[in-house]
């Protein structure tokens, strides 16, 4: 069964092969989605070209997009509209904070660092949703990635935890705005996965170890498991779910 046949899905946030967005992309390609990508920077573009070739995806649509720039977002969605027309899903897998603010005391967060984390990691979902909805004329699903640091004070996660709290609140407000248009908006709160972004959090390896010890399932979550939940949300199986934050973390949040 191909769960995403005839669905046009935009994936934002593939940087390299460890990116959660790439795990989701592979799953979606396998489920016969027509996957479109935005990328940030030439290195990410080159990686995407290489990976898609390996997956035998012909003539993929790759569009550059810096989510801190409204004109760039608008241009990217214009291009999606011109080349594809209708969108059925968006995966927002984007976050950034200064490495030196992902450690130590949260009270040392600079105004600039705080605003940047909010801008890239939380506001971007709002801006993206505005343009995505105009192309989701057949209904759709918007999915973003969050982390437990939104709900709890996780050591060193600091400014990113506050940005994720704003992201999760945005999911609820956007779900209300877009529900009557048959567009669902949800977040997946993933357990820690070794990626480039995650390695920016001080003592991330220690966090991974503690996670395995405490999580009910006594292991780390796999990127593929996060991708499976994204698949559920973007397919016909998830149509009644909106405004939700689904933990895909081997149960860590119930005990950790
Ligand atoms: O443990 C983890 N890895 C978890 C990640 C646990 C729970 C949640 N998440 C979240 C992250 O916070 C993020 O929202 O998952 C999402 C994806 O993160 P990832 O896959 O862990 O990290 P990565 O592969 O680095 O992808 C994030 C990407 C950027 O990568 P780089 O490495 O270049 O910073 O976000 C993109 C970029 O591709 N990005 C931007 N895209 C557009 N405009 C921008 C920007 N201004 N800045 C960063």
TrEMBL record:
Residues at which NAD(+) binds: 13, 19-20, 66-67, 94, 164, 193-197
What keyword terms does UniProt attach to this protein?
A: Fatty acid biosynthesis, Fatty acid metabolism, Lipid biosynthesis, Lipid metabolism, NAD, Oxidoreductase
- GO biological process per UniProt: fatty acid biosynthetic process
Residue positions of the active site: 147 (proton acceptor), 157 (proton acceptor)
EC number(s) recorded for this UniProt protein? 1.3.1.9
Q: Does the keyword tRNA processing apply?
A: no
State where substrate binds: 97
Q: Which reaction does it catalyse?
A: a 2,3-saturated acyl-[ACP] + NAD(+) = a (2E)-enoyl-[ACP] + NADH + H(+)
> Which Gene Ontology terms cover its molecular function?
enoyl-[acyl-carrier-protein] reductase (NADH) activity
Matching entries from InterPro entries are given as: Enoyl-ACP_Rdtase_NADH, NAD(P)-bd_dom_sf, SDR_fam
Q: What pathway is this protein a component of?
A: Lipid metabolism
Q: Which domain of life is it from?
A: Bacteria
Family named by the database record = Belongs to the short-chain dehydrogenases/reductases (SDR) family. FabI subfamily.
Q: Which PANTHER family does this UniProt record tie to the protein?
A: ENOYL-[ACYL-CARRIER-PROTEIN] REDUCTASE, ENOYL-[ACYL-CARRIER-PROTEIN] REDUCTASE [NADH], CHLOROPLASTIC
Protein known as: Enoyl-[acyl-carrier-protein] reductase [NADH]
């Amino acid at each position: 069964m191909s769960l995403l046949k005839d669905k046009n899905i935009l994936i934002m946030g593939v940087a390299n092969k460890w990116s959660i967005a790439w795990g989701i992309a592979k799953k979606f390609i396998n489920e016969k989605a027509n996957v479109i990508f935005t990328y940030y920077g030439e290195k990410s573009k080159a990686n995407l070209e290489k990976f898609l070739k390996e997956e035998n995806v012909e003539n993929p649509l790759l569009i550059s997009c810096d989510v801190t720039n409204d004109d760039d977002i608008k241009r990217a969605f214009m291009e999606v509209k011109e080349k594809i027309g209708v969108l059925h899903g968006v995966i927002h897998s984007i976050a950034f904070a200064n490495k030196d603010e992902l450690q130590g005391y949260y009270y040392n967060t600079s105004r600039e660092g705080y605003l940047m984390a909010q801008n890239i990691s939380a506001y971007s979902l709002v801006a993206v949703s505005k343009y995505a909805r105009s192309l989701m004329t057949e209904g759709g699903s918007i999915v973003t990635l969050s982390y437990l640091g939104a709900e709890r004070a996780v050591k060193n996660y600091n400014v990113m935890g506050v940005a994720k709290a704003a992201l999760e609140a945005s999911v609820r407000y956007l779900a209300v705005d877009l529900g009557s248009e048959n567009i669902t908006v949800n977040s997946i709160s993933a357990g820690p996965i070794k990626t480039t972004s995650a390695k920016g959090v001080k003592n991330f390896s220690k966090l991974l170890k503690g996670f395995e010890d405490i999580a009910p399932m006594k292991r780390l979550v796999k990127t593929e498991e996060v991708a499976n939940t994204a698949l559920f949300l973007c397919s016909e199986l998830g149509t009644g779910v909106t405004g939700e934050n689904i933990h895909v973390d081997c149960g860590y949040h119930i005990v950790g």
